Amino acid sequence: MAQILDGKRVRDEILEELKPRIAQLTRKPGLAVVLVGNDPASEVYVGSKTKTCAELGMVSEKLTPPATISTEELLQIVADLNAKPEIDGILVQMPLPRHIDTQRVLDAIAPEKDVDGFHPTNVGNLSIGRPGPKPCTPSGVMELLKRHQISVAGKHAVVVGRSDIVGKPMAMLLLHAHATVTICHSRTADLAAECRRADILVGAIGRPAMLTRQHMKPGAVLIDVGINRLDNRDEVVKIFGETSEKTSAFDKRGSVLVGDMHPYDAAELSSSWTPVPGGVGPLTIAMLMVNTVEAAERRQA
Ligand code: GUN
């Protein structure tokens, strides 16, 4: 039987370990979350971020400028947060509306308050193995592996997806943990063949159930970072069949969440795998809290 990697358990452990660290600080750590516009998925994520802050006794500030905000106005919001002493971490929720210059906004966040690890200084620090905030989802994956005693050194890790938020930093963290790393993407010549070489396969492409048994080496560790919401019944049936739990769930709720990997194939072939939801997802917010507490610790030292 394949082992299910339990993201909720690991999240709870990580959050529990933060409590004494927060209690040690002279001031409660403060996180500012900037959500531009009203993308429903982003609203859900931001809601859970501020809720988790409250549960840990941290301060959170939520700013919700309209989608019509200009780059200059958003830069001013970031500058104000940079200057605010009680704010230790700043997160600008991605993606931003197309008219906004995302790179300028990310560059404007003070590196010491950049709890996403997206600032070029922190990307550079990660690349050369210096301390600093690391992108939350990939660092959550590393915690999930570590806390399930899955060794990485010497393994062949294949990361599917080359985004700045997940794929690239994921590859870098696996490399620092001494894996041999391959990064695949939309132009990879034979994706299935590359993936079948993976002892640890990470899916971060945002395509529902695209990675199937033909991509999986029997006994591999399968880490599914995708969170795709399906609201078309035909698509759900095509992936899971007419009589399946997912299809029944869809019939009740009108949508279901599906990862980048086919969960039935993953459960059958892997040594361990992450379900969607409940695998990698819960760790992103936990690691954001870690980054915020660490930023506060550095700023208060
Ligand atoms: N959108 C999806 N994931 C993330 C994340 O980790 N950070 C930010 N800022 N936006 C996101």
Descriptive notes:
This protein is α/β, with parallel strands linked by helices and 301 residues long. It has 2 domains: 26-111, Rossmann fold (3-Layer(aba) Sandwich); 136-283, 3-Layer(aba) Sandwich (Rossmann fold). The chain is 44% helix and 14% strand. The chain contains 12 helices and 11 strands. The chain has helices at 7-24, 40-55, 71-83, 102-108, 120-127, 136-146, 167-176, 191-196, 233-240, 245-253, 263-269, 281-300; strands at 3-4, 30-34, 59-63, 89-92, 156-160, 180-184, 200-203, 221-224, 228-230, 256-258, 272-273. The chain has a 6-stranded parallel beta sheet. Strands 3-2-4 form a 3-stranded parallel beta sheet, with helices on both faces. A two-stranded antiparallel ribbon has the order 9-10. Helix 7 links the parallel strand 5 and strand 6. Helix 9 packs antiparallel against helix 10 (245-253). The chain is globular and about 50 Å long. The model has no long low-confidence stretch (mean pLDDT 97). It binds guanine.
Describe this protein with a few key phrases:
alpha/beta; Rossmann fold; 6-stranded parallel sheet; 3-stranded parallel sheet; 12 helices; 11 strands; globular
Second-tier CATH architecture of the largest domain: 3-Layer(aba) Sandwich
Shape: globular
Going by helix content, strand content and strand pairing, the class is: alpha/beta
Instruction: Give the count of structural domains.
Output: 2
Largest sheet: 6 strands, parallel
Count of distinct strands: 11
Mean pLDDT across all residues, rounded? 97
Q: What's the end-to-end separation, in Å?
A: 47 Å
- Look up the CATH topology of the largest domain: Rossmann fold
How many helices? Answer: 12
Helix content: 40-55%
The value of Rg in angstroms is 19 Å
Strand order of the largest sheet: 1-11-8-7-5-6
Residue ranges: pLDDT <50 for 5 or more in a row? none
Bound molecules: guanine
